[in-house]
Amino acid sequence: MEDSQPEDRVLRPQRLEEMIGQQDVHERLGIAIDAARKRSEPLGHILLDGPPGLGKTTFATCIPRELGTSLQIASGAALGAPKDLLPYLTNAGESSVLFIDEIHRLPIAVEEFLYPAMEDFRIDIILGDGMSARTINMPLQPLRWLVQQREPDLFRPLFVIVSLSESIWITTAFRNLPK
């Protein structure tokens, strides 16, 4: 099994034009990427939604290559506390992409920690306990969030949504919505 892993990496599409199937998704992502390039603006946050086996992770690895930027990958199941996100957030370069696989598996505390990072590109770090606690507001590089989920209707207000299924749509990302 270990011998097949390097072959899988070689066989997996590296760019959107190498993708087979999901033509509607390919075209819509291509339009969004081209528009962001022409406007000289970063691509909006993207949520890839759909059942297993439709290419969500493959699309997620192709998008940063199309943008010419770096990619960091995290698993929603492995992010048990807000502190687990700090290395990803503090090491991100401007316009880099953070891909969180299975974001629907995040604990609520981590989910709440994500909102200011996504909306305002900042995080609040609390030092100490009780009356002596201090909050440090730490600015972040503007990075793009690319997430994948299998559970419907989570996180939708914060993302451009790309649903990989029979009905495919992209909606506009919203900002500063009440949570």
Q: Helices and strands in order, then pairings?
A:
Layout lengths: L3 H8 L11 H17 L6 E4 L6 H12 L3 E5 L10 H5 L6 E5 L6 H13 L1 E6 L6 E6 L4 E6 L10 E4 L16
Parallel strand pairs: 1-6, 1-7, 2-3, 3-6
Antiparallel strand pairs: 4-5
Please tell me about this protein's structure:
The structure is a single chain. The chain has 179 residues and is α/β, with parallel strands linked by helices. It has one domain: P-loop containing nucleotide triphosphate hydrolases (Rossmann fold). Helix content is 31%, strand content 20%. The protein has five helices and seven strands, in the order ααβαβαβαββββ. The chain has a five-stranded parallel sheet, with helices on one face. A hairpin with a 6-residue loop joins strand 4 and strand 5 (134-139). Helix 2 runs parallel beside helix 3. The longest helix has 17 residues, at 23-39. The protein is globular. It starts with a helix and ends in a 16-residue tail after the last strand. Mean pLDDT is 79; it is low at 166-179.
